[in-house]
Every structure is written in structure tokens, then in C-alpha cells.
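pipeline stage [seq->struct] | target=Allantoate permease | organism=Candolleomyces eurysporus | residues=581
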Amino acid sequence: MTSSSPTEKVSDKARGSKSSSLTNLSDEKAPVKVDSRKVSTDDLVDEEPTPFRWSDWIFRRKGGPRDANAISTRRSVYDDPVLAKHYWPKDSYENTHRFDPDARWTYAEERKLVRKIDWKVMLWAAISFSALNLDRGNLSQANTDNFLPDLKMTTNDFNLGNSIFRLAFLSAELPSQIVSKRLGPDVWIPIQMCGWSILTMGQFWLSGRTSFLVCRALLGFMQGGFIPDLILYMSYFYTKNELPLRLSLFWISMHVCTILGSFIAFGVLRMRGVLGREGWRWLFLVEGGITLLIGIATFFKMPPGPTQTRTWFRPKGWFTEREEVIAVSRILRDDPTKCDMHNREALTIRKLWRALCDYDLWPLYIIGLLFGIPAAPPAQYLTLSLRNLGFNTFETNLLTIPSSVATIITMWLIAVVSETVHDRAFVSMTEDIWCLPFLIALRLLPNSPNPWIFYGLATALLSYPYTHPIQVGWCSRNAGGVASRTVNASLYNMFVQASGIISSNIYRKDDAPMYRRGNSWLIGVCAFNCFILYPGVKAYYIWRNRSRDQIWDAMTSEQKSEYLATTKDRGNRRLDFRFAH
């Protein structure tokens, strides 16, 4: 350090860029007032969102003004003259040239930018995710068209196929993330989409049990890692408080896709007999073709990052210089760890090992393993159960729609609640609390239940508030750093896929048709999640934060600066990091 203050040094570096000074930008029409207040690192790590407002759900600032022309720049560590230098972006970070710690912007400017990001980034991410779920969900629809009898398979073969798919899916998670971090998610994601779409279309030629199992393995391997890749990509554009609600919309698109898929299946399955082929074969061919077109389009719809949207087929890009400054500066003010790696920088073995050994995220992995088990078998077997109760192929496909619509509503509401009350653990527990009474009711049904009573209970059960998006955002927030976020998102999703393997083997042929033994297991797991797992994880993170507070709060500003300058701790291992719970 020279004799000049860190703030002066940071500002001089920022002004070296043509776009750094807010009043000198080419598209600036009037000077914007600069908020010169300084903040401490305590303000940074303890910051909480404001209560939710339907009229302004994107921006949650504690005590924030409603005036659209007021400054919305969030206070951050970059305003601290002692600590700012320790958080400055690496020279290799692709957005360094647009970062300006002196930049100030208004609520109106930020709203306009975030809306543009929503339309440009999130919308296509949701479409891409829908393509994944269209190809993942068509097996259930194929079951309504005598898929298993046509291939001379049993429900146990069906369970084995689902287990192999999930095993291949989770096996591909880490390798996919390593490739994605090297090539960039904007390149790897469309490659994955085109690959699994071709495999989906190839299921038109399935001939029996062996070809079915091979296709399930290949599909799982191609689709593995897609979800963490897409979440990492979205984190380049959104703050930590914006991402969970976007992830909820992300998973809402999955259920919208389920509804659309039911209507597609309703029409395509009527093609049974065309060219002497079964309807489910045409279903795989048609839906695989749709997702292949989406995959090809994705090559042109995903820029590498907010300052890399200009290319030969998009010469003007998506954002102005000013918008790029705001986009980068607000993201780094929210989370300075996002600038510790280039978006084409490969993961090293050391970084990979460090992320694997991050025991503070292991509680979330356990949640990932167990939270989805109670609802998964009833959802997986819904179409088969309805067929066994006497509903025909087309009735069954249409009867799956109400629970999908209800889940869209409850998922969005629970995400809003989570951000409003600033809680992850207890809000996420709501999914299992919802499922418990309906699982008990299904367990107590007679051997030959009224079909509509069974359908009503199953639909109510599957209308649960899906909390997976909250937990994905929770894991991302607690990872702290691009490298750890990349790996830990994959590890979390691997445990979620392992949960799917367990779920696929709970309902067995010798327990059909009411699966009383299986439902008893589901009730036990659900009760454990509600009364032990989630409260225990919350208690753990509260304890970890209090332990760090005792050390960090006792340090002077100079001691904190010395710690940040000399520590070898990274990401969530640092004393200034606090875990969300």
C-alpha cells in the first residue's frame, strides 16, 4: 500500500475504465447523487432483506425508500477504507473493467436492468430447464400407454431403470461441473441439451429391457450436472437475495412443462398404430425433437456473462456501458467472492478437494438426501396407480394436471415466505410437514379404495410446497466463492439424485397395489425430517455463526485488515462469513 488511502487507490483504479465514473458515461443524462456513507464489515455480513412487497417484489432493502430516483446502491465492504483492498476483483476476472466501487444508481435504473436480465437470462434458463424436464418426465406418460407390457417389463424393471438413471445422473455431476467451468456454462449447457435430446429420440427404437436400461444410463449421464451448471450461470447475473425467487420460477417452469407435456402426450399417444408403432414411441421422438431445437437455439441465447453479450450475431449486445457497470458492481457489492475466478477458469484439484472437505455444508447434503423421499414414490407411481384403479390413458394424463398447478402456486408462495421472514430451515421443513398427514391417510386406506378418494388424497399430497429451490439457493449462499459454489452445488444435487435412487425402490411389486409397507417407511422418514433434521441443521448454523461473532466482534479494524491480508482461509472458512439458516 502507498500512503494514499485504500479508497482513493480503489477509486483511481476504477476511473481508469472509460465507464467507471457515473457522470461521464455516454448514456448518462443527469448527474446522480453519490452516497458517500461508509460501512463496516459487520454491516455487510449482517445485512437482511426487507419485508416482502407484492408491488415491488424484486427489491427488498431494509428501510429502503420508495422513490424511484433515490439511490439504491447497497452498502458494502468496498466502502470501507481499510478492508476494500482485500476484496478487489482479480485481474483475470472477466468483468473487472466494468467494476466501479464509486458507481451509484437509482431504484428505477436497477429495476429496469433486472427486468431486462429476467427477460433475457432467466426466461431462457427456464425454457432450457423445461426442456430437461420434458425429456425426464415423458417416461411416466409413456407408462399410461402400456409401455411396460409392450417391452415385456415389470414395475421392478421400471424401478431399476430409474435407479440406473439417477446413479448415472449423480455420477456425471462433478465431471460435468469440471467441464463446464473450463468451457463455460454457456458452451457446455447447449452441448448437453443436444446430446440428451438425440438420446431421447433414440428411445423410439427401444426393443426390450436391455435397451431400456442402456438408454436410461446414457440419458442420466448426459443430463447430470445440467442443473448446477444453470444455477452457476444465473448467479453471474443475480444477487443472493434475488436468486431464490428466480430459482422458484425456475422450478415452476418444470411444472408448467409437466402440464404442457400432459397435453402433448394426450395428443401424441393417440398415434398408436401409425406405421405400426406404439404411441409412446412417437412421444419420445416428438418430445426429443422439440428439445433438440431448444438446445440448438441455446447456443445463441446464452452469453458468457453480463459484459460479454456482444458477438457477431448480436452486435449491439444486451446492455449499455452504464448497465454493465451497474450489473457488475451490484453483484460484487452483494457478494465479493463472485470475482475470485474467471468464467472460463478450470477447477484445480486443490480447489476441488477443499470444496469436498467443506464439512459446514454436509448438513445440507443430508437434507438433500432425505427431504424429497416422502413425496417421490407417490409422484412416481401416480400414473400407474390411476391406471390400476380403472382410469384410462387419456384420463390419467389429464388427472395429473391439478397437482402440478397447485404446486406452482404453493412453491411460489413458500419462496416468498422464505425471503420475507429471512429463514431457510423452518420454511423448507414445510414440504415434509405438508406431506405427513396425507401419507398417513394413504396408509390407512382400505385395499379397494374409492378411486376418487385415492385420487383426491394423492393430488393433495402432490400439491405440496416444493422447497428444493430454496435449498439450492441456501447451499449456494453458504458455499462462499465460485469454486466451492460450483462443486458444492454438484455435491448437493448428487445427494438429491441419491435420494431418487432410494425413492425408486420403496414401492415394490410384492407391496402393490396400496404399498402399505412403503408408505410406512415414508411416514418414518417424513417425521424424522420434520422433528429432528431441519431443527438440528438450523441449530448447527446458529452455533457456527455465534462462535465466529465472538472472535470477529472482538477484533479492531486494524486486526480485521491484518487477518484479511494474511489469512489462508477461503470462502465460508473466513471469520467474516456468516451462514444462512
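stage status: PASS
auto-comment: The chain has 25 helices and no strands. Confidence is low (pLDDT under 50) at residues 1-65.
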